[in-house]
Amino acid sequence: MTVVEIEAKAAETAPAPAPVAAPPEPAPDQPRRIGGPTRSGVLSLTGAAAAAVCVTILLFGELAPFSGALGFTVTAYLAFLALYAVLTGLEENGQTVRDRVMTVVLWTAALLLFSALALVVGFTAWRGREALPHGNFFTQDMRAAGPLDPITRGGITHAMLGTLIMIAIALLITVPLGLACAVYLNQIPGRFSRFVRTIVEAMTALPSIVAGLMVYATWILILGMPKSGLAASLAISVMMLPIVIRAADVVLRLVPGTLTEAAEALGAPRWRTVWHVVLPTARSGLATAVILGTARGIGETSPVLLTAGFTTALNADPTSGPMISLPLAVFNFVKSPEPAMIARGFGAAAVLMTLVLVLFTIARVIGGRGPGHQSRRQARRTARASRRDAARFAELHAPGLTLFDATSPNAPTAKPSGSTTEEDPGQKPGETD
Description:
This protein has helices spanning about 5-15, 40-65, 70-90, 95-125, 135-140, 155-185, 190-205, 210-220, 230-255, 255-265, 270-280, 285-300, 300-305, 325-335, 340-365, 375-395. It is mostly helical. Helix 14 (about 325-335) packs antiparallel against helix 15.
């Protein structure tokens, strides 16, 4: 028997190899939950809150001689934080525990601030509910009304107009100067810019009465000008200017330096870069800076009292005669013991808050969205412009299209799409230039 026959016989008698099992398919990846409430988190919060209330009741009622609503609330909150940290630590690591506890603390702070704001707005509107429904409150002044007259006589028209005139003049002075100074501090660094920034930071904490005294001493005593709305606007501008400069300076620092570098690399001068690149990019932040300055200036009372005086009649001329603002009217109304005058004061305060809200809304509309965020109208406009550009590029790359005017008598004829060179009629075949 040959070797070949032996190998063939052994192959026939050998057992068949066992089939190789296919490797198991890997399980699909499950995305990890990184936010939102979970079942264990909700149970931990609920259990910690219930346990904290029980522990505080036990401390204040049986174990310790504690009393008072404020102490009860603070003790219950501290116990809640401690118990919540313990319950969270049973399932999570230390970093997650700290993150959960700080999240609860931040939510608590936000809730307290919102509650305080709602309390102030609601209390002011509730106390002024007696004066706000009357139409004469918005259409009359206090020239023919006294402290003992009912709310159906007199109003705050003179104070509303005075506030609008003063804040408009102050904005005309503050916005150009503030934005120009902020641009100077960011675009022209140096020793003098550091000095100006220091002065601006120091003026941020300037008391309002000092600004009023400065304008009163220079504008009224030295120059001999009368008390007027213009003088009050100058005092308000002194208070608004450092706020606008400081806030605009911080916003302009956030503009990426690559944008200005790209504009200057294209050959744009510095002023064009600032006007077309830096300011449009920071437009929403600059609107916020103007809002902060306006909120600071619109609520000033002492500078207006020193520089504009007091009047109960309507005065629309800011250059002559006393003029009153809403904060000053509120101050004079609420210091009266008469309920009608106090109601007028709270109604004027509600109108002042509404005016600030309207100015805030206008500034946000003018400021628009932040860089990179478009409204629906802007997105549609951008899409239409992109389609027009795509069609124009397609026409430029169309076969047989030349860049010459077809109506010109010297314009060459369009070449066939397959030809690559144009032959000279006087040139022999095979010759080249």
